[in-house]
Design brief:
- The structure is a single chain.
- It is built from eleven helices and two strands.
- The protein is mainly alpha-helical.
- It has a two-stranded antiparallel ribbon.
- Strand 1 (about 240-245) and strand 2 (about 250-260) form a beta hairpin.
- It is rod-shaped.
């Protein structure tokens, strides 16, 4: 439409070269102001995009660290270790669907059993439900069946990781549900439209009318393209939409699509899944009770013969209690 207007204006000035044009600093001043608006719009979108990426980086680190901790420090309870790894694998998939308004239970069945999937089907917040499952799974680290405290420090460490996973849900929801204010977006778009529509009248006084058409096309491409980039990257998780699609029988079905996918969330989920599966394989091959993982007492020769390093977690780092006369 803008190019059509520019072509009409160029033809008008070509036939009537004596017609007045827009001169003066009006477009120069307003153009600088419009550039600031577009730059702010784009910077705001990029900040949202980068913050979302940092949130998912923290999610990846939390899942990996929690899987590593549970595999190394929970001894004699393979069921708990494997259960925690299973839930951690499902967590990013659930969060991805939650942020996009999806509910693909078939994807969840790849890592969870039917009972867990049935529970998620009734949940309005699947990642939060998985965090609750994690808390219930590690609960016996705090109190055993006899009501005695087992390993409070390990439980507190794991629970802090679960709390951070819950915090990541809130941080992601904030980005997904709080776009740039609509009034600001509308003002920028309207101002840009009016400026570009009047720009051909300004260009007519500087160059040949038909040359101004090509210059005008380049200016519109640069300005509208930059504004569109700001609109796209402000939704880092994608924009869900419901679309009617007719099947082979002619009936209509709701199909959820996404206009954009700035962050490849599925790739992040698969990376977490593969990393946890690798940790699970290492846990099965090298359990903490394996002979090759047992550390024996080792004496280190140092300058002071009265100091002896004992590489055993149950002893002090340095053999201070050793009798010097022995």
């Amino acid at each position: 439409a803008n190019l059509l207007v520019s072509a009409i204006v160029a033809t008008f000035y070509y036939k009537y070269p004596g017609m007045p044009t827009l001169t003066g600093p009006v477009h120069t001043i307003t153009g600088s102001f419009m550039g600031l608006l577009i730059a702010f719009r784009t910077n705001t979108g990029y900040e949202r995009f980068w913050e979302a990426r940092k949130v998912w980086e923290q999610i990846q680190n939390r899942c990996r660290n929690m899987a590593r901790i549970i595999a190394n420090y929970v001894v004699g309870d393979d069921q708990m270790v494997l259960r925690v790894m299973q839930i951690l694998t499902a967590y990013p998939y659930a969060l991805k669907q939650h942020l996009r308004g999806q509910r693909n239970l078939e994807e969840m069945r790849r890592v969870l059993g039917d009972r867990d999937v049935a529970l998620l089907e009734e949940s309005s917040n699947m990642p939060q439900t998985l965090c609750m499952m994690l808390s219930l799974t590690i609960r016996k680290l705090l109190v055993n069946s006899a009501g005695q405290i087992e390993n409070q420090y390990l439980w507190e460490t794991l629970d802090r990781h679960i709390q951070e996973l819950v915090s990541h849900i809130g941080a992601s929801e904030r980005l997904a549900t709080t776009p740039v204010p609509l009034s600001y977006s509308r003002h920028t778009s309207r101002f840009l439209s009016i400026w570009t529509l009047t720009f051909p009248f300004f260009m007519a006084s500087y160059c040949h009318p038909y040359i101004s058409v090509f210059a005008y096309g380049f200016v519109c491409w640069a300005l509208f393209g930059t504004e569109e980039v700001g609109h796209i990257i402000e939704e880092p998780f994608g924009i869900p939409r419901s679309k009617k699609k007719a099947d082979a029988n002619g009936s209509k079905q709701d199909k959820e699509e996404h206009n954009t996918e700035n962050l490849p969330l599925l790739r992040y989920c698969e990376a977490i899944k593969y990393d946890i599966e690798e940790l699970q394989g290492q846990y099965s091959l090298l359990p903490t009770t394996a002979p090759q993982c047992t550390i024996s007492y080792t004496t280190i020769v140092v300058d002071n013969e009265e100091e002896m390093f004992i590489a055993n977690g149950d002893q002090d780092k340095w053999g201070q209690s050793r009798d010097p006369s022995s």
